[in-house]
Amino acid sequence: MIVDIALKLAFSLYILLFIFRIVLTWFPQQDLNKIPWNFIAWPTEPFLKPLRKLIPTFGGVDMTPFACLAITSLLQELLVGQQGLIAMLTRLQ
Fold first, then answer.
1. Rounded distance, CA 25 to CA 76, Å?
2. How wide is the angle at C-alpha 42 spanned by C-alphas 13 and 16, nearest 5°?
């Protein structure tokens, strides 16, 4: 039960951070190492950096935040969604 709630909160937080990161790609002049942008950039960068090697930019737009948002949403649904693995396990108990 606690694991379920913690994972839901973590996934929701990262989905929100990736949405903010997508919006920040529209403003490339922002310094992501300054407050308040660093609160968005620092937690998401470890996930974006490896994907940048795999996903090229498209028309000068960094597509990795979109990919991370999709992957995070998929994982959230597979693990803690209504038919997710952890949700099913908690119903069995």
1. 24
2. 20
